[in-house]
Amino acid sequence: xxxxxxxxxxxxxxxxxxxxxxxxxxxxxxAALAGLTVVAFTWLAESALExxxxxxxxxxxxxxxxxxxxxxxxxxxxxxxxxxxSGSGIPQVLAALDPQxxxxxxxxxxxxxxSVAKILLTSAGLLAGxxxxxxxxxxxxxxxxxxxxxxxxxxxxxxxxHSLLVAGGAAGIAAAFNTPLAGVxxxxxxxxRSPERRRSGLIIxxxxxxxxxxxSIHGNGPYFGIIHAGPIGAALxxxxxxxxxxxxxxxxxxxxxxxxxxxxxxxxRFTRLRQSHPVAFAAACGGAVAIIGIxxxxxxxxxxxxxxxxxxxxxxxxxxxxxxxxxxxxxLSVWSGVPAGIFxxxxxxxxxxxxxxxxxxxxxxxxxxxxxxxxGFLAAATQAPLTAFIxxxxxxxxxGMVLSLMACAAVAxxxxxxxxxxxxxxxxxxxxxxxPAPPVRP
Length: 442
What we know:
The chain has helices spanning 7-15, 18-58, 63-81, 90-96, 112-127, 135-148, 161-177, 180-191, 200-218, 237-262, 269-276, 278-295, 305-313, 322-335, 343-360, 366-382, 385-396, 402-419, 423-432. α4 packs across α19 (423-432), α10 (237-262) packs parallel to α14 and α17 packs antiparallel against α18 (402-419). The chain has 19 helices and no strands. With 442 residues, the chain is an all-alpha fold. It folds into two domains: 21-218, Clc chloride channel, CATH 1.10.3080.10; 234-428, Clc chloride channel. The N and C termini lie far apart (51 Å).
């Protein structure tokens, strides 16, 4: 039989416990600070990309020197001062959530110091014109801010470091995309393996608050504006299925390529070169990114948000080979070893795939297929279909396409699972190798 519920004890526990109220205040304050930090990072990163595009616009050839040299400098600084800041940032937070990582070892993956380094180094990558996103780094940045709040909690806190990391990582997604609901789903789908039932409500409030901080500053409009998807009916079925399959294959291959490149065997020549001469390797990758940028007339530089937004509005002047060139530029940027996210580039690659199939199938409502391509490639690359679906739905105000976006995300993610293991989980396993082995007892 259920235990008798003592209302008085429940009231005291929830509303008359000073330690609990202090914990709530600290968590909510840290969430607001995490949201503000991501907003500041967004401004700095986008300003850096604007400076690069303005400077390179008048002297396209300068990228052949600037991009490789800056890429090499970023990798040198990352390896020298903040090795935990390399890569996306999501695998680091997943590694910090692993049960075998305790106490001081969490600082290898998430801390205020790493958050500051991630902000500066990722912004420098966009200043170099590399093809990378800021959303994955936002996860690690916000997680570091939230984890730092633990020192202000009571000696016997009601909120664990695990919960703070989950809340911080999800708050980073919510604030980066202006999508609070996507942050909650990201926490459930990608990060939360053993959530605390009693305090899950507080964690969700923290995630939503961080997203609302970003919304209050950037405005409540959809990130990419409101799309005009046209009628959603039987005519969309065949081209929509083509987009789902194409984006699933492309996203799965992209994930597999990243895993093979970042975790390649030591017998591979490129892996040996990357390990023995990381700075020179980064310079070579940066040079290749610059060449691709020149070939694409600058379209592949940066996150790709402008290209995706232009395609959705029907104003994009994007060449047919953009998806392939952006695919290569993003892979090389990540392979170089700089701090780099893949969310925004994945959205632009998917948008270009959807646009290509709309032209191929002569479908008159291209924005619908572009949105499907965005959700399909992102779901396939990350194998987080629910998060991808909600992110794209909120970014394009695609509530009229809910079922279509869900179906595309599910199909593309299923295709990707045949081609590649989950990207972030596999990269988290690589991060865990940095944890020192426990001492051997005699």
